[in-house]
């Protein structure tokens, strides 16, 4: 279990958060020790004085999507419902760095999304118009302007999909995922939250339509409020209270190259190539792509993915040819039909959900936790979260977030 780090100066271990025996009563139980669960716990204690909170994590803090992502932060979503949440979330990172007294390594290096056809350029115009209307900085660049940002980008007619333009989002960037998890866990712990690693939830107990507790492999816990923030395993948790979620769990893989001299100073992505990447502080190229097309709970790594990623990057950024990949990993994405999250209460009183984020969840964790904590403390849904209610699927009021990925096509 991860609960302590080694000081580089003293060589002695210093605990980041304390270990507590599992109590038989908590005001709130949060299932999932990732950035969403920890953020909610932190803000429950900080803003609402609810400190008798238990975060239950089956493995260790940050084991799931919070620790298996490429750590990109941005607010260039498509729909008017999504943009306010991501916009506020992007502004929260430097504030949390100061508040939590922990270097989250937030670097607003800018995001460049490429277009490879006239239709894709038109789609970007729509996204940019929505973003600018919502006061999210974004602009349309021509190929030469894209190359000025990223000199190693090939804008000739040689690539399989020539660059026709791009959407530049200056405030976007990267943030260190494990630093975020550790800082939130330490901050919540200091406010009195109990963080329990290696505790598996076996059942959520319901009586007369209300949550009354949870059953774990360490014993029973009484509570009247449960938050499902279990990421890829959120459908399993909701099934414990009789709810079937419209979520498909798909694996997502990512790669890290050997360290290179500085050549890529912004995040670059291409839906047509199914590839995105940026250069880390140590010089490595961190790169990911679209999800595997079949449902699975296997966080596998495949040779086909490595081949695809190498071909895509070399076609767009030829100077990377010959660079070696050092490691590859996989994680789980909990995808909804409209690619927007489920942030909702339910027909079961006291049961809440913060899930269905797909591959967008990390960047929105702290801000969602802030508003989720307000909802659970006051009993009234904040306006910014209302568009994400589970009822939208029943009422056929789906979001239009899929429009931002409308130009995804297979590489082969």
Record keyword descriptors for this entry.
6-stranded mixed β-sheet; 412 residues; alpha+beta; disordered C terminus; single chain; D-Amino Acid Oxidase, Chain A, domain 2; 8-stranded mixed β-sheet; 2 domains
Give your account of this protein's structure.
The strands form 5 sheets. This protein has an 8-stranded mixed sheet with strand order 7-8-6-16-17-18-15-19. Strands 10-4-3-14-21-20 form a 6-stranded mixed sheet. The protein has helices at 35-48, 83-99, 118-133, 143-149, 177-190, 234-239, 303-316, 365-378, 391-394; strands at residues 4-6, 13-15, 28-31, 53-57, 72-73, 111-115, 139-141, 165-169, 173-174, 194-197, 201-207, 210-216, 219-222, 226-228, 248-257, 267-270, 275-279, 285-288, 325-335, 342-344, 351-355. With 412 residues, it is α+β, with helices and mostly antiparallel strands. Helix content is 26%, strand content 24%. The chain has 2 domains: 20-69 and 177-245 and 338-403, FAD/NAD(P)-binding domain (3-Layer(bba) Sandwich), CATH 3.50.50.60; 108-174 and 248-337, D-Amino Acid Oxidase, Chain A, domain 2 (2-Layer Sandwich), CATH 3.30.9.10. It contains 9 helices and 21 strands.
